[in-house]
Fold:
Amino acid sequence: MMQVHTSTIGDATVLSCDGRLTMVAAPTLRSAIDDAVSDGRVRLVVDLAGTSFVDSSGLGALVAGLKRTRQAGGDLRIASAQEQVRMVLNLTNLDRILEPFDSVGDAVHGW
Amino acid sequence: MDGEYRVETLAVPETLNLLHDLLDRVREDHPDVERTDLMLFETAVIEITNNVVEHGPAGTIHYSFTLDVEHDRLLGHLCDGGPPLEKPLRTMPHTGSENGRGLALARIALDDLAYQRVDEHNEWTMVRRRR
Structure:
């Protein structure tokens, strides 16, 4: 079962996903994003270094998070996406709105 | 068809790991198959099975999946006892959409995806040519 660990770097909140981000796990990420935004933390980085696989449910959670944070005046960025995740982002055209940053450090740069 | 690799189980989210495990076994047994081919095949299999899990009455649908590694292609068959597919295989939705990507992604990940309703079952045939 995927775990989401929350940490902070400056103004940014980092949600680290460990495990497959699939139909089973997507609600966990959605909840973590909702909790963060409800707490006023609207600059989110989803760290995917530990995520070997994402499906369309996981992509849906990321898109929902992007919309939620932007509506609240923030943003959601993704970092350290692995090979399958990058491939799926590309095939679904979601890399146009969820540009993968190479590292969490790169993602929070400029925030 | 017997299939070189086979899973037969209940269509609930918790059993999707059996498919990931099956693909892991294929990776170990066939190091000659390109990583990308298996990665995209796995993506398609999971999306199609997600569809079965999501659209059947919860916890009552069974399915079987078989995979054969052939010299020039990966061939998968999935047979499920769920309701017929209501919508045709769709194109990729707009980037702002939060759902509706599953079967569109499966189509792109494969070279051929065929669906047919046979008696009271759905039959999915998945082909990815080996690069």
The beta strands of chain A are 3-9, 12-18, 43-50, 75-79, 100-101. Residues 56-71 of chain A form the longest helix (16 residues).
